[in-house]
């Protein structure tokens, strides 16, 4: 997982994100968790994900922050959706 800085516009240009956590990169899609509530995994085309700027200093810090955000939003780890559990806790 890697922390990235981005100015990715989504939801028809209404929301702009500055930080995200890249979960995995596939052949066509990149799975990303944006720093926002509700915590959810989203798919982004690889072409758009290539413009993200890697922030190696914030990898672990952002990962821990996303875990606490997910626990805050869903109540506990077991209440989170399966894809969030697999990406943030590996369970």
Please give a structural write-up:
- The protein is 30% helix and 36% strand.
- By secondary structure, the chain is of the alpha+beta class.
- The protein has one domain (2-88).
- A 5-stranded antiparallel sheet has the order 4-3-2-1-5.
What multimeric state do the chains show? single chain
Mean pLDDT: 87
Which segments are poorly predicted (pLDDT under 50) over 5 or more consecutive residues?
none
Summarize the helix and strand pattern as letters.
Answer: EEEEHEHH
Strand order of the largest sheet: 4-3-2-1-5
Count of distinct strands = 5
Portion in helices: 25-40%
Distinct helical segment count: 3
Name the shape in a single word: globular
Rg estimate, integer Å: 13 Å
Secondary-structure content class: alpha+beta
Q: Span from first to last CA?
A: 16 Å
Our estimate of the beta-strand percent is 35-45%
Task: Please give the largest β-sheet.
Answer: 5 strands, antiparallel
**How many structurally independent domains?**
1
């Amino acid at each position: 997982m890697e922390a990235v800085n981005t100015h990715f516009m989504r939801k028809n240009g209404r929301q702009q994100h500055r930080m995200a956590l890249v979960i995995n990169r596939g052949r066509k899609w990149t799975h990303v968790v944006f720093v926002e509530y509700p915590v959810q995994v989203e798919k982004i085309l690889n072409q758009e994900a290539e413009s993200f700027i890697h922030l190696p200093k914030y990898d672990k810090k952002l990962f821990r922050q996303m875990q606490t955000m997910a626990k805050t939003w869903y109540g506990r780890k077991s209440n989170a959706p399966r894809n969030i559990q697999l990406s943030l806790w590996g369970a």
